[in-house]
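User: Show me an example of a complex going from sequences to C-alpha coordinates.

Assistant: Sure. Here are the input components:
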Amino acid sequence: MFSKACEYGIKASTYIPLQSLQRRRVSLSEIANEIDSPTAFTAKILHQLAKANILDSTKGPAGGFQIPKARIDTIKLGDIVFAIDGDSIYEGCGLGLDKCNADKPCPVHYKFVVIRDELKRMLQNTSLFELATGLETGLTYLKR
Amino acid sequence: MFSKACEYGIKASTYIPLQSLQRRRVSLSEIANEIDSPTAFTAKILHQLAKANILDSTKGPAGGFQIPKARIDTIKLGDIVFAIDGDSIYEGCGLGLDKCNADKPCPVHYKFVVIRDELKRMLQNTSLFELATGLETGLTYLKR
DNA sequence: ATTTTTTCAGATAATTTTATCCGAATTAAA
DNA sequence: TTTAATTCGGATAAAATTATCTGAAAAAAT
Protein backbone atom coordinates (compact mmCIF):
# COMPACT_ATOMS: atom_id res chain seq x y z
CA MET A 1 0.00 0.00 0.00
CA PHE A 2 2.61 2.54 1.11
CA SER A 3 6.29 2.53 0.27
CA LYS A 4 8.75 1.62 3.02
CA ALA A 5 9.84 5.25 3.03
CA CYS A 6 6.29 6.33 3.66
CA GLU A 7 5.84 3.81 6.45
CA TYR A 8 8.90 5.21 8.22
CA GLY A 9 7.63 8.72 7.58
CA ILE A 10 4.30 7.97 9.21
CA LYS A 11 5.89 6.28 12.20
CA ALA A 12 8.29 9.19 12.73
CA SER A 13 5.42 11.65 12.38
CA THR A 14 3.56 9.74 15.04
CA TYR A 15 6.45 9.66 17.47
CA ILE A 16 7.74 13.22 17.14
CA PRO A 17 4.53 14.92 18.38
CA LEU A 18 4.69 12.87 21.54
CA GLN A 19 7.83 14.84 22.41
CA SER A 20 6.88 18.09 20.73
CA LEU A 21 3.87 18.41 22.98
CA GLN A 22 6.42 18.81 25.77
CA ARG A 23 8.60 21.10 23.66
CA ARG A 24 11.27 18.45 23.41
CA ARG A 25 13.26 18.15 20.19
CA VAL A 26 14.11 14.64 19.12
CA SER A 27 17.29 13.54 17.41
CA LEU A 28 17.49 11.35 14.35
CA SER A 29 19.02 8.53 16.35
CA GLU A 30 16.27 8.62 18.95
CA ILE A 31 13.62 8.53 16.24
CA ALA A 32 15.25 5.69 14.31
CA ASN A 33 15.55 3.77 17.53
CA GLU A 34 11.96 4.34 18.61
CA ILE A 35 10.44 3.43 15.28
CA ASP A 36 12.93 0.67 14.52
CA SER A 37 14.11 2.00 11.18
CA PRO A 38 17.49 2.31 9.39
CA THR A 39 19.04 5.53 10.61
CA ALA A 40 20.51 7.01 7.44
CA PHE A 41 17.45 6.19 5.38
CA THR A 42 15.26 7.75 8.01
CA ALA A 43 17.36 10.92 7.81
CA LYS A 44 16.46 11.32 4.14
CA ILE A 45 12.79 10.93 4.87
CA LEU A 46 12.81 13.38 7.75
CA HIS A 47 14.64 15.81 5.55
CA GLN A 48 11.96 15.37 2.93
CA LEU A 49 9.25 16.04 5.49
CA ALA A 50 11.13 19.11 6.68
CA LYS A 51 11.28 20.46 3.13
CA ALA A 52 7.56 19.84 2.84
CA ASN A 53 7.11 22.00 5.90
CA ILE A 54 5.64 19.18 7.92
CA LEU A 55 8.33 19.30 10.56
CA ASP A 56 11.05 21.67 11.71
CA SER A 57 14.67 20.65 11.93
CA THR A 58 17.54 22.39 13.68
CA LYS A 59 21.20 21.49 13.44
CA GLY A 60 23.85 21.49 16.09
CA PRO A 61 23.94 20.26 19.67
CA ALA A 62 20.50 19.82 21.17
CA GLY A 63 19.17 20.05 17.63
CA GLY A 64 16.74 17.65 16.14
CA PHE A 65 13.22 17.45 14.85
CA GLN A 66 10.05 18.99 16.11
CA ILE A 67 6.51 19.78 15.08
CA PRO A 68 5.12 23.08 16.34
CA LYS A 69 2.39 22.36 18.86
CA ALA A 70 -0.23 24.25 16.93
CA ARG A 71 0.29 22.15 13.82
CA ILE A 72 0.06 18.73 15.43
CA ASP A 73 -3.66 18.91 15.21
CA THR A 74 -3.88 20.29 11.69
CA ILE A 75 -1.37 18.01 9.97
CA LYS A 76 -3.15 14.94 8.65
CA LEU A 77 -1.92 11.47 7.84
CA GLY A 78 -2.65 12.24 4.20
CA ASP A 79 -0.19 15.13 4.24
CA ILE A 80 2.62 12.76 5.19
CA VAL A 81 1.64 10.24 2.54
CA PHE A 82 1.43 12.93 -0.11
CA ALA A 83 4.80 14.43 0.84
CA ILE A 84 6.52 11.06 0.42
CA ASP A 85 4.54 8.93 -2.03
CA GLY A 86 2.96 11.76 -4.01
CA ASP A 87 -0.51 11.49 -5.40
CA SER A 88 -0.22 7.95 -6.73
CA ILE A 89 -2.54 6.61 -4.05
CA TYR A 90 -5.11 9.26 -4.94
CA GLU A 91 -4.81 9.38 -8.69
CA GLY A 92 -3.16 6.19 -9.91
CA CYS A 93 -5.17 3.57 -11.79
CA GLY A 94 -5.60 0.24 -10.03
CA LEU A 95 -4.23 -1.52 -13.08
CA GLY A 96 -1.53 1.02 -13.85
CA LEU A 97 -3.12 2.54 -16.94
CA ASP A 98 -1.74 5.95 -17.84
CA LYS A 99 -5.10 7.47 -18.48
CA CYS A 100 -7.94 5.87 -16.57
CA ASN A 101 -11.03 7.88 -15.73
CA ALA A 102 -14.79 7.84 -16.03
CA ASP A 103 -14.44 8.56 -19.75
CA LYS A 104 -12.25 5.55 -20.46
CA PRO A 105 -12.19 3.43 -17.33
CA CYS A 106 -10.21 0.26 -16.72
CA PRO A 107 -12.19 -2.85 -15.76
CA VAL A 108 -11.81 -2.22 -12.04
CA HIS A 109 -12.12 1.57 -12.14
CA TYR A 110 -15.49 2.01 -10.44
CA LYS A 111 -14.80 -0.69 -7.92
CA PHE A 112 -11.63 1.11 -6.93
CA VAL A 113 -13.13 4.56 -6.78
CA VAL A 114 -15.25 3.44 -3.86
CA ILE A 115 -12.33 2.02 -1.90
CA ARG A 116 -10.03 4.88 -2.70
CA ASP A 117 -12.52 7.52 -1.69
CA GLU A 118 -12.86 5.89 1.67
CA LEU A 119 -9.08 5.66 2.03
CA LYS A 120 -8.74 9.30 1.01
CA ARG A 121 -11.30 10.36 3.55
CA MET A 122 -9.63 8.38 6.30
CA LEU A 123 -6.20 9.86 5.50
CA GLN A 124 -7.54 13.39 5.52
CA ASN A 125 -9.52 12.92 8.71
CA THR A 126 -6.73 11.42 10.79
CA SER A 127 -4.50 13.97 12.52
CA LEU A 128 -1.06 13.42 13.95
CA PHE A 129 -2.54 14.37 17.30
CA GLU A 130 -4.91 11.46 17.16
CA LEU A 131 -2.13 9.04 16.23
CA ALA A 132 0.21 10.36 18.91
CA THR A 133 -2.48 10.12 21.55
CA GLY A 134 -2.94 6.43 20.87
CA LEU A 135 0.77 5.91 21.47
CA GLU A 136 0.85 8.01 24.62
CA THR A 137 -2.00 6.18 26.24
CA GLY A 138 -0.37 2.85 25.46
CA LEU A 139 -3.16 1.82 23.14
CA THR A 140 -0.92 1.50 20.10
CA TYR A 141 2.68 0.57 19.34
CA LEU A 142 5.41 1.45 16.87
CA LYS A 143 7.54 -1.65 17.22
CA ARG A 144 7.39 -5.43 17.07
CA MET B 1 -1.50 -1.07 -4.36
CA PHE B 2 -0.79 -4.13 -6.51
CA SER B 3 2.56 -5.15 -7.93
CA LYS B 4 3.13 -4.69 -11.65
CA ALA B 5 3.02 -8.48 -11.98
CA CYS B 6 -0.40 -8.51 -10.36
CA GLU B 7 -1.68 -5.75 -12.60
CA TYR B 8 -0.69 -7.75 -15.66
CA GLY B 9 -2.23 -10.85 -14.13
CA ILE B 10 -5.55 -9.11 -13.60
CA LYS B 11 -5.58 -7.66 -17.09
CA ALA B 12 -4.80 -11.03 -18.65
CA SER B 13 -7.46 -12.68 -16.51
CA THR B 14 -9.93 -10.13 -17.77
CA TYR B 15 -9.06 -10.61 -21.43
CA ILE B 16 -8.81 -14.39 -21.59
CA PRO B 17 -12.45 -15.09 -20.62
CA LEU B 18 -13.59 -12.88 -23.46
CA GLN B 19 -12.19 -15.53 -25.79
CA SER B 20 -12.81 -18.55 -23.61
CA LEU B 21 -16.54 -17.86 -23.70
CA GLN B 22 -16.25 -18.67 -27.39
CA ARG B 23 -13.99 -21.63 -26.75
CA ARG B 24 -11.03 -19.82 -28.28
CA ARG B 25 -7.59 -20.33 -26.84
CA VAL B 26 -5.36 -17.27 -26.73
CA SER B 27 -1.63 -17.20 -27.25
CA LEU B 28 0.86 -15.40 -25.06
CA SER B 29 1.64 -12.91 -27.81
CA GLU B 30 -2.01 -12.04 -28.33
CA ILE B 31 -2.49 -11.50 -24.62
CA ALA B 32 0.63 -9.38 -24.22
CA ASN B 33 -0.48 -7.33 -27.17
CA GLU B 34 -4.03 -6.85 -25.94
CA ILE B 35 -3.06 -5.85 -22.44
CA ASP B 36 0.03 -3.91 -23.50
CA SER B 37 2.51 -5.79 -21.33
CA PRO B 38 6.08 -7.11 -21.78
CA THR B 39 5.74 -10.53 -23.40
CA ALA B 40 8.32 -12.59 -21.53
CA PHE B 41 7.34 -11.18 -18.17
CA THR B 42 3.71 -11.87 -18.92
CA ALA B 43 4.62 -15.48 -19.69
CA LYS B 44 5.92 -15.93 -16.15
CA ILE B 45 2.76 -14.53 -14.67
CA LEU B 46 0.48 -16.67 -16.83
CA HIS B 47 2.51 -19.67 -15.87
CA GLN B 48 2.05 -18.76 -12.23
CA LEU B 49 -1.70 -18.48 -12.71
CA ALA B 50 -1.72 -21.83 -14.50
CA LYS B 51 0.08 -23.47 -11.58
CA ALA B 52 -2.49 -21.91 -9.25
CA ASN B 53 -5.14 -23.61 -11.31
CA ILE B 54 -6.71 -20.36 -12.37
CA LEU B 55 -6.17 -20.94 -16.06
CA ASP B 56 -5.34 -23.83 -18.37
CA SER B 57 -2.39 -23.79 -20.72
CA THR B 58 -1.66 -26.09 -23.62
CA LYS B 59 1.57 -26.22 -25.60
CA GLY B 60 2.08 -26.70 -29.29
CA PRO B 61 0.46 -25.19 -32.36
CA ALA B 62 -2.98 -23.74 -31.68
CA GLY B 63 -2.05 -23.92 -28.01
CA GLY B 64 -2.41 -21.11 -25.57
CA PHE B 65 -4.35 -20.10 -22.52
CA GLN B 66 -7.93 -20.63 -21.59
CA ILE B 67 -10.29 -20.57 -18.66
CA PRO B 68 -12.98 -23.27 -18.62
CA LYS B 69 -16.35 -21.63 -19.16
CA ALA B 70 -17.80 -22.93 -15.93
CA ARG B 71 -15.04 -21.34 -13.88
CA ILE B 72 -15.24 -17.84 -15.34
CA ASP B 73 -18.04 -17.01 -13.00
CA THR B 74 -16.58 -18.60 -9.91
CA ILE B 75 -13.04 -17.22 -10.13
CA LYS B 76 -12.87 -13.92 -8.30
CA LEU B 77 -10.52 -10.98 -8.63
CA GLY B 78 -9.22 -11.83 -5.18
CA ASP B 79 -8.08 -15.24 -6.38
CA ILE B 80 -5.81 -13.62 -8.95
CA VAL B 81 -4.40 -11.16 -6.44
CA PHE B 82 -3.76 -13.92 -3.92
CA ALA B 83 -2.06 -16.15 -6.51
CA ILE B 84 0.39 -13.40 -7.43
CA ASP B 85 0.82 -11.03 -4.47
CA GLY B 86 -0.02 -13.49 -1.73
CA ASP B 87 -1.88 -12.43 1.38
CA SER B 88 0.06 -9.22 1.98
CA ILE B 89 -2.94 -7.13 1.02
CA TYR B 90 -5.11 -9.06 3.44
CA GLU B 91 -2.77 -9.55 6.34
CA GLY B 92 0.04 -7.03 6.11
CA CYS B 93 0.24 -4.16 8.58
CA GLY B 94 -0.25 -0.70 7.12
CA LEU B 95 3.03 0.39 8.67
CA GLY B 96 4.91 -2.81 7.95
CA LEU B 97 5.05 -4.15 11.50
CA ASP B 98 5.74 -7.85 11.74
CA LYS B 99 3.09 -8.49 14.31
CA CYS B 100 0.22 -6.06 14.25
CA ASN B 101 -3.18 -7.09 15.50
CA ALA B 102 -5.92 -6.11 17.89
CA ASP B 103 -3.72 -7.21 20.78
CA LYS B 104 -0.83 -4.95 19.86
CA PRO B 105 -2.01 -2.66 17.08
CA CYS B 106 0.01 -0.08 15.20
CA PRO B 107 -1.26 3.50 15.30
CA VAL B 108 -3.26 3.11 12.10
CA HIS B 109 -4.44 -0.46 12.68
CA TYR B 110 -8.14 0.14 13.26
CA LYS B 111 -8.35 2.78 10.57
CA PHE B 112 -6.92 0.29 8.12
CA VAL B 113 -9.07 -2.62 9.12
CA VAL B 114 -12.10 -0.75 7.85
CA ILE B 115 -10.57 0.02 4.47
CA ARG B 116 -9.07 -3.40 4.06
CA ASP B 117 -12.27 -5.20 4.87
CA GLU B 118 -14.03 -3.26 2.17
CA LEU B 119 -11.23 -4.01 -0.28
CA LYS B 120 -11.35 -7.68 0.66
CA ARG B 121 -15.06 -7.81 0.14
CA MET B 122 -14.79 -6.11 -3.22
CA LEU B 123 -12.08 -8.50 -4.39
CA GLN B 124 -14.07 -11.54 -3.35
CA ASN B 125 -17.30 -10.29 -4.87
CA THR B 126 -15.93 -9.40 -8.28
CA SER B 127 -15.86 -12.29 -10.74
CA LEU B 128 -13.87 -12.56 -13.94
CA PHE B 129 -17.19 -12.80 -15.74
CA GLU B 130 -18.17 -9.39 -14.50
CA LEU B 131 -14.85 -7.86 -15.55
CA ALA B 132 -14.91 -9.51 -18.98
CA THR B 133 -18.47 -8.37 -19.60
CA GLY B 134 -17.46 -4.76 -19.11
CA LEU B 135 -14.80 -5.18 -21.75
CA GLU B 136 -17.07 -6.95 -24.18
CA THR B 137 -19.76 -4.30 -24.02
CA GLY B 138 -17.17 -1.60 -24.62
CA LEU B 139 -17.71 -0.07 -21.21
CA THR B 140 -14.16 -0.60 -20.03
CA TYR B 141 -10.67 -0.72 -21.55
CA LEU B 142 -7.37 -2.49 -21.03
CA LYS B 143 -5.07 -0.06 -22.78
CA ARG B 144 -4.04 3.58 -22.87
C1' DA C 1 9.53 -38.87 -38.48
C1' DT C 2 10.23 -34.07 -39.12
C1' DT C 3 8.99 -29.51 -38.72
C1' DT C 4 6.65 -25.82 -36.70
C1' DT C 5 4.35 -23.56 -33.07
C1' DT C 6 3.73 -22.95 -28.76
C1' DT C 7 4.47 -22.90 -23.45
C1' DC C 8 8.04 -23.88 -19.78
C1' DA C 9 12.29 -22.94 -17.19
C1' DG C 10 16.40 -21.01 -15.93
C1' DA C 11 19.95 -17.48 -16.49
C1' DT C 12 20.85 -12.84 -16.92
C1' DA C 13 20.08 -7.80 -17.25
C1' DA C 14 17.91 -3.34 -16.19
C1' DT C 15 15.41 -0.50 -13.16
C1' DT C 16 13.59 1.01 -8.92
C1' DT C 17 13.57 1.02 -4.12
C1' DT C 18 15.84 0.65 0.05
C1' DA C 19 19.89 1.29 2.66
C1' DT C 20 24.69 2.83 3.83
C1' DC C 21 28.78 5.81 3.94
C1' DC C 22 31.25 9.92 4.38
C1' DG C 23 32.26 14.53 4.48
C1' DA C 24 30.29 19.35 4.58
C1' DA C 25 27.50 22.81 6.87
C1' DT C 26 25.38 24.65 10.96
C1' DT C 27 24.82 25.73 15.61
C1' DA C 28 25.19 25.56 20.55
C1' DA C 29 28.23 25.02 24.30
C1' DA C 30 32.84 25.09 26.35
C1' DT D 1 37.37 30.73 18.98
C1' DT D 2 37.50 26.07 19.27
C1' DT D 3 35.05 21.86 19.83
C1' DA D 4 31.35 18.74 19.70
C1' DA D 5 26.83 17.46 18.22
C1' DT D 6 23.82 17.46 14.98
C1' DT D 7 21.35 17.75 10.31
C1' DC D 8 22.31 18.10 5.21
C1' DG D 9 23.79 16.35 0.65
C1' DG D 10 25.80 13.59 -2.58
C1' DA D 11 27.92 9.23 -3.85
C1' DT D 12 27.62 4.58 -3.55
C1' DA D 13 25.92 -0.14 -2.47
C1' DA D 14 22.51 -3.79 -1.71
C1' DA D 15 18.15 -5.82 -2.45
C1' DA D 16 13.87 -6.37 -4.69
C1' DT D 17 11.17 -5.96 -8.63
C1' DT D 18 10.56 -5.82 -13.42
C1' DA D 19 12.08 -7.25 -17.85
C1' DT D 20 14.72 -9.85 -21.46
C1' DC D 21 17.09 -13.72 -23.60
C1' DT D 22 17.80 -18.38 -24.86
C1' DG D 23 17.08 -22.93 -25.24
C1' DA D 24 14.27 -27.09 -23.75
C1' DA D 25 9.89 -29.57 -23.80
C1' DA D 26 5.47 -30.62 -25.69
C1' DA D 27 2.11 -31.20 -29.11
C1' DA D 28 -0.16 -30.55 -33.48
C1' DA D 29 0.37 -30.44 -38.45
C1' DT D 30 2.89 -31.88 -42.42
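The lines above are the inputs; the final block is the predicted structure for all four components together. Residues 27-29, 43-44, 46-47, 50, 57-65 of chain A lie near DNA strand D (CB under 10 Å from a C1').
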